[in-house]
Structures are given as C-alpha cells and as structure tokens.
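Exam review. A common question shows you a sequence with its structure tokens and asks you to describe the fold in words. Practice with the pair below. Do the first one on your own.
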Amino acid sequence: MLQGAAVLAGSQLAAPFLISARGEVPIKIGMTDELTGAASALGHSEVQGATLAVAQINAKGGILGRPVDLLVEDDANDVGTGVQKASKLIDRDHVNVLLSDPNSGIAYAQTQVAANKRVLNIIPGAHTDPMTGKACKWNVFRICGTTSMDADSITGILANKYGKRWFMITPDYAYGHTLQAAFIRNIKKLGGEVEAILLPQTTLDFTSTLIKAQLYKPNVLINNMYSQPQVDCMKQFLQFGMEKTIALGGAIFELESVVATPPAAQTGWWNMEWWWNQPGVPHVAEFNAAIQKRYNVMPSARVWFGFVGVHSFRLAAEAAKSLDAYKMARALEGMELPPEVALQPGKVYFRKDDHQLMANIFVGRMHPSKTGNKYDVFTVEKMVPGQTVAGTAADNGCHMVYPS
C-alpha cells in the first residue's frame, strides 16, 4: 500500500543516483536512504525535500560560490549496506557532509563512520535517543525529535483522556526500544501500568498480539510500529472491533502511512513532527506548492527533514565560511533556522550542548479527510515546543567532546 508514493517519488531515480548542478568543482552532499524496502516511502520523501533544497541553493548561486551536487545511495534498510554506502560516499565520492538513513539502527552505525572520518553528519529522521544523548558526537546534528521527546509530548494527553492502563506494540530494534522505554517511564510516573510486546519490525500479522491486548483490557493501545506493519496493525485492530472499547494512539503515524491506510483506520491521537497545514505561517504555502509542483504530493514531516538537512549544511558552511567539518559544527551550534527553512512558528534551533534541533511537535487527532484532500487527515490540537520535552543534554547523557 505504501508502494504508490515510493514509485511516484522515485520514478525518475535509480540508486545510486546523482542530482547534478552546473559547475566544474561542486560541493557534494552525500545521502543514504531506504529507497527499496519496507519504509521506502519515507526514504523517497526525505530525498524529495533534499532535492528541492539543492535546487533552491543552486538557483541562488550555490554554497560559497560553488554549485552543489546531491549524491544519494540506497541502503535497502540494511545496517551493513548502510555502513558500506556511507563509507563509499566519504572515501570515494569525497562528500562534504553525510545525511543519514531514517532507520535508527543504520543511522547510529553511520555516526561511527562519519566520526572516525571527521565528516559533518546530519541525521534528518532517525529518532533513537542516544545519537544526541549518551552517544552524542561533535560532528553529529539531528533534525527529527528523539523518541523521548515524542513520547513525552503525547503521554499526558492520552492518559488524561482515556486512562492509564496501556498495552503497547513495539518494533524490536533501536527506535522501538527507546520509544517503548520512554512511554513506560512516563505512564508509570503518572501512576499507570503497561504491558509491552516487542515484535520483529517486519511483522504483518498481529492476530495473537491483539488477542493478548484484548485479554489485558487496556484503556489505550499504543501502536509503535512504523510503515506497512503499522498500517496492518491499525487495520487488524479495527477488524477485531477493538476500537469500541480501547482507545488508539502513539508517538508517530507518518503521513505516508496515513494516506495508505483505509479511512476507517485513520484514527487515534498522534504526533506529527511537522505539518503542512499551517495557515498564516510564513513560507509554508510556498514550500507546499513547490513540493506539489515537483512531485504531486503534499509534503510530510519526512520531506521537511530532508529539506532542513540540506539547508542546515548550507547555513553551517556559510556561517563558517569554510567546508571544514570542525568549523561548520561550531557554526551550527546554537544556530536558529530562518523562517523559510523552519516553516513553523517560534524559535527553531540546534541546541549547543547536544546538537539536537529544537522544533515544535504537533499533537492531534487523526481522522478521514472531510475536504476531499486526501492529505487533510490530521487536526492539530496542541503544539509542543521541543525544548519543553527535550530534557537537558546532561540529563540525557551527552557530554560533547571535540577533537584536539
């Protein structure tokens, strides 16, 4: 069901591929993404945003007077392949920055590669906590929120609206582990209780797990799966009639997944880490129009992640007046994104102490479209500033060490 968006987004692309600019000595941006595999729709969306950003930059003269090329590699949702592709981009293609994969396990492994080779590493959309927590590195910056930030944004709302007895279904890999831990910590602080089940991230049949959930009789079912498995879990939840007695929600229900879900399953309370429908916010309408013109889709948070990743590199290079990784990292620390990049209200900035982007988290209700626009499936009920749920860098275990 997620194939359609991926095919549309990648119809003119083959992996690896090169999005070229004019000029003889280009600056090179390397990007690895899952362009084939279970979450390929998310990978294609990040590439869409990055491609638009490169086009904008080149139209205005490039970076430091040089054109920009975007080199994209498909890691097919495999950690070993992701490490190989990151090494290839750095060692053979000599990229000036590496944008990492959406899969937290792959992105985490790639941070080791980039750190060893002293290359600036921007993580658009991999959420697991340690990358800007206990495993933070001087050269690593992250755009999406952490799993703890996402869980903290919505736990109280779900508990207050529906109750504190929860059943949780979670993918068994890095992202799921830290997300589940955050939810358990939060609900127990509120005096609640939870039963949590870890499943392979490729699970498509949730029959036995949902039977366990029914027997547990929770107030809320938390669906932490992602992409196609999340969609299938939603469908089976409704097929069993569980929505009559159990509320549904979780941290993230990606727009790519929502539009691939039957309308009846477009339900529950969730976070969006960026949302396209922000009337009156400067530059959002222009961004939406640019993505629609290029790809005939409405931009998702994933599109925004890729867009911000490329522009963050540009801003760092321009502020440092250099492509030296150390100088760019120092320049990016504490930097506030300009409105045409932030595309949301308030101050959006990279926190100096851990290099985590402090952006808003949009919390609200998922529902079938009432307007005929298939992307109009989410109503924002609360906007949570990232810094209010991020904790301190020290509490998160980040002790930044720069090379001597």
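Now try the second one, then compare your answer with the model answer below.
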Amino acid sequence: MGLSGFAEDRISLYLGGVAEKIAADAVPADESINIGALEREIDVCERAKHVYPDGIGQRYGCYYRQAQLYFAMSAPFAQCRILAKDNDQRIQVPTIIKSRAVCDRGDHGVVLPLNWMRHWSSVGNLAANDRPFEQKDDRLLWRGVTTGCFDATDQNNPLSPRYYLAHLPELADGIDAKFTKLTQHTDANRSFPLAAVQARMGARLTMAEQLESKFLLCLEGNDVATGLKWMLGSQSTIIMPKPRCETWLLEGELKAWEHYVPVNTDLSDLNDIYDWCRSNPQKCKEIAQNGRAYVARFLDIKTEFAIIRAVVRGYLNHADAPLTFSARQRITQLPQVHALWADYGRFKWRIRANKRGFGTG
C-alpha cells in the first residue's frame, strides 16, 4: 500500500540513526539482550538471567513477546536486540526500544510500540467515558505517582516535573493535582521531598472522572506519561511541559499551542497558564480537537502494520544477527509460529477496538 508523507516521516523517525556506522568495539552498557523472533519464553528468560536474576516477570509479555510478534509479521527467523524498560538514555548499538529522549533521535535505538496495552489500550474507552468540551467543568486535574528523578543531588538526570509539582507553594483554586502513590522512593535518597509529596496525596480518579474536566495536566515520569495517549485523544485540553521523551506516538512532533498548552518544566507558570486557559475556552477547545486529530492518525490498522513492517526491515538492514540456533532448537521453536500468529490476530482486534472506542470506524 502507498504510504502518506506523514507515515514515511514516521518510519524515518522511528529508525533514528540506526543506519549510521558504529564503532567496531561498541558494546551496549544498558540492559538489552539478544533474542530470536521464535524463541520460547523459557529460553529468553534463561538468556536474561544476568540482567534479571530474579526473573523477567511481566517484561516478557510486554516487551520481548511483543517484539517477537512484530518480527513474526515479516521476518520470523530473525534475531533482534531489545531493551525491555523505560528508556531515556542514548543507545549505542541497534536496539529495539519503547522510548527515547527526543534529543537522542540520532542514536541507534529503533522505536516499536512495545508495552502497547499499558500505553494504548485505554484509547478504546474514550467514547464510553468522554463528553463534549462544553459539558466539562473548568478544573485542571492531575493524578500520578512519584516516577522520574526525585533526587536533587543527581546531576546526571533532569528532575521530574512531578518533583517540581511537590514543591509548588500554592495552587490556584480549581487546580486539583495529587499524587496517588509513593514509588521508586528509597531511604537512601535523603533529598526526596517526602513531606511535600505526602501533603499532596489524594485518591485515584477513573478516566470518566478525569474527563469531567476541560483541562488535564500531563507530566512525564520515567519517560512519557502512561495516560498521554488517551488524554490527548479526549475532548479535554492537555497542559504539559514540552515533551522530553517520545514513544510510538512521536510525542516530539507535538506542537505547543496547537496540540497542547505548554507550561514550564518546573511548573512555575502553572497558575498563570491555567488562568489563561479559563479565559480562552474557544482556543482551548480548538487545541483539544487538534490533539484528538493527531492521535487519530495512529489508529488505521493497515497503516500501522505497514509502518511496523517497514521499521523491522530497516532495523534488520543495519543490525547484526549475533545468535545462531541449531536444527534441534529451530524445531522446538516452530510451534511459536502458530502462537505468534494468534497474537497477531488479537493485536489487530485491539487496534480496531481502539478505533471504534475512539469514536471512529
């Protein structure tokens, strides 16, 4: 099928700098591992023991299995290197990743929609939970956990906008921004603003409860905010700092004042931006519609599958195949073909469900 200019641009952006030459002695310093597209879970887990001595856990289904699915669509006997985690570090050798820093588009990370259920499945619930912009109240809502860098002594990582939220002295009337859980907090991090976070704790809100409001605050954590896809696809206006990380949605392509209302990373202008939003409802409605239109461009199943195949081919054209399997091992892997094609059918169904739940198709 012929792809649009936007789709072709997406392929190029997902592949990043993977075509660039790398140093012959380049060795990944991350937690990535090599796997075969048809390898069994037990074999993948065995190879990953040096990275995950306590077991892979959910990472297999969310990362490795999903990557195997994408390779099974066009290159079932291929091998690939995968980093099964949130990522905002530079990638040294061709590696399949879920996320990256926008400033690292030129590295060797190749973006595929890993951990898809966590980041995309809620889009299918929008039609049942959303309402027109005019029927929403004027509050600005945020709910989230303490992910991202909260260590003020760490000079290597920028502080999370969630850290700055905990330090805001006063929020304007109508801003309801609360933490729902303490996570990634250890006693060793003495600079963690525990008292400030605890003072700003609140109850979790459902999607429907959050979508009662015209304005939704979206803050990155370890990488992109998990809820950004459904928030941006809703009829509410997103307020957020300029994206630092991106995934399959290519958050780095979002434009301030077109797809979202920008706020400083340290949230120092949050009250003023909120006041502007309340004073400009028509402009905010337009921004919400633009954000929704942007998400809709990722919901056509034929286009998405064509792009995934193109990205897989682009990766294989520039990546080594470091694994070899014996004839006996290949025989034990053959049943995986049927299992992965069953996954393929379920994945197609989920994308179609998202399109219907989004309110199209």
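Model answer, second protein: The mean pLDDT is 93. The chain has two domains: 5-120+299-358, 130-296. Full marks require stating both points clearly.
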